[in-house]
Design a protein that fits this description.
DNA-binding; Rossmann fold; 434 Repressor (Amino-terminal Domain); homodimer; 350 residues; 13 helices; six-stranded mixed sheet; 45% helix; 12 strands; alpha/beta; elongated
Amino acid sequence: MAATEKITIMDIARRTGLSKGTVDRVLHNRGEVSKKSYAKVMEAIQELGYEPNVFASLLAKGGKVLVAVLIPESEHGSFWELAASGIAQAAESVTAVGIDIVHFEYDQYDIESFRKASARMLDAHPSGVVMAPMFQGETEVLTEALQEQGIPYCFIDSKPDTNGYLSYFGMPLYKSGYLCADQLTGGHDVSAVLIVRIRRDRFRQSDPTVNRRAGFLDYMMENYPDCRIDNVFIQPNDPDDIDSALSAYFRLHPDVRHVVMFNSRIHLLVPYLERHPDPERRVVGFDNLKANMDALRSGTVSVLIGQRPDEQVRLAIETLAEYAIRGKQPQKKDHFMHMDILTPFNVEDY
Amino acid sequence: MAATEKITIMDIARRTGLSKGTVDRVLHNRGEVSKKSYAKVMEAIQELGYEPNVFASLLAKGGKVLVAVLIPESEHGSFWELAASGIAQAAESVTAVGIDIVHFEYDQYDIESFRKASARMLDAHPSGVVMAPMFQGETEVLTEALQEQGIPYCFIDSKPDTNGYLSYFGMPLYKSGYLCADQLTGGHDVSAVLIVRIRRDRFRQSDPTVNRRAGFLDYMMENYPDCRIDNVFIQPNDPDDIDSALSAYFRLHPDVRHVVMFNSRIHLLVPYLERHPDPERRVVGFDNLKANMDALRSGTVSVLIGQRPDEQVRLAIETLAEYAIRGKQPQKKDHFMHMDILTPFNVEDY
DNA sequence: ATTATTTCCGTTACCGTGCACGGAATTCAA
DNA sequence: TTGAATTCCGTGCACGGTAACGGAAATAAT
């Protein structure tokens, strides 16, 4: 497959009767070369099938490639902690080949902290940026700055409607709602389901749950149009509120056995659910946070639908590295990644 | 996280009052250095936190790293075709950093072809080898040769009971049978299931299906001890035989609605199953071959349990590259990887 | 025709390591 | 005390590419 090539810049210099300086100029087409020479060099490159030696190039250029990752703070047990661990993994695997990764965090509910993190990131002069777009306006500001400086960037998790990014890696949100509904019902008729939602302030611009809910509702509409859909809102940081909200609901609807949440916080329900066990209950949530997986193991949660923020991060970093090192554009722009179904029987290996 | 280090071999040479030649000698401890100098250099390395520049090293050493992959022929639509595609992916991502991959194939039913492929592989003098152990005796012969030459190797898919390998990447087979049983029954009581098996010759030494079957049977025993387990054997290359075998079985047991196969060939049943549709039937198989995924899409197969040969290959290659480039041992030897549950609702993104 | 500009190109000094070669310093044999 | 044999270590080139520098050739201006 791969040949044992050894054609160097000198080979093509000799072949064309020019010097390596000239060859280098056309390789990086930075001008100062006559049409004729340019053509000759290009031809020789084609014929000999020249490919630059990355090591030599990086060595001479004297740079490590630096990729910056700009994502929300990885609070303990949060979704972004998974992504952060993905950074560590990716770092592990790519630093071996001279790519450095810097990680910038911000408070996902605080625009100002995002601005500051962006600024610090730009100061690091990375050769590529991986980011999760949280604040639409600020994201635009940032991407414009990046484009101005010619720094390529990738989105993970979700993406805005702009177009200047190099690649996007994320989950198909609408479809994940659909899948969720199928796992919740197990293909059997269901008379009522409870959706637990988080009452959140309007800070966040991009909310993955709306698309998920849409997919979920469409599935239910199509397959079980008579199923009743209830909503209960909770305060994520107030255990008492969660407890009372659920208690109130289930007092009215003791027959409801299907519970779902569209964000990564299904673990918030665990205390209540464990105090009111029901072997027939079916609970489906998203994302393989540790707390969620524990709930799966204990049987409180039936199914988790997971994505791989770590893999998303890795792929984004690799894409950027590839681009920075050899200037290669990825073949696909948008990468919708697989959704993992986790049950008590396969959770151990995730 | 990562520092902007720039400590070179020269820095520590100056620091110790020695020359880079000497430093180099202790770095690769190839002798010809006095105790005293050795100690001084080691100390300086510690203090300055010296880390060799991979680029310069690779450049000087003049070599690309070459990783050989030795797996069964990737017949169209077969399991190993997935692995092969993984090689392509991995190649894509790692050639960027100077790692070359060579792919050697053999007929998994022909020991002689394995021997030849091994020989050709050794001739290529790879710096690392990824292999799937098919023939126990021959695998031993090969690994001995590799060890003699100091070439590290990784196993994927399954592994022998030896110990000299660098890493193993594969699926937990027993547990996959367990998971399979859970998906087949869907947690509901079942009175009878049909296991379709392939009557194969005794060429293959390692057969993943026996462990899977064991896990499956244990699950059934534990949860539904009264369930009847039937076995039907088919000839994989003879469609007529498959048809008649299944016809004969279902004539006797028209009530059986749960069908499972433990190898990657569930797609062989599709023609029969499609001619005798049954919306209540539940069919579970293994591995995301294209044909299997098509069957999933069409609804003939209910669930597939997939592994990622491509990811296994990638990880193995990365491990070897890491080891070859920086001599770093992986932290874990055996990597049991996650099992993916594929349903019609998430199959598209795999 | 001479000078001033451009345009184009060759030379050269790196980048950080690996390694061969030969010489200095040390030890051993006489 | 010399010469020979070791042990140790410094020098210098190679690896393939980058980019600054300056000069030759071609073109323009005077």
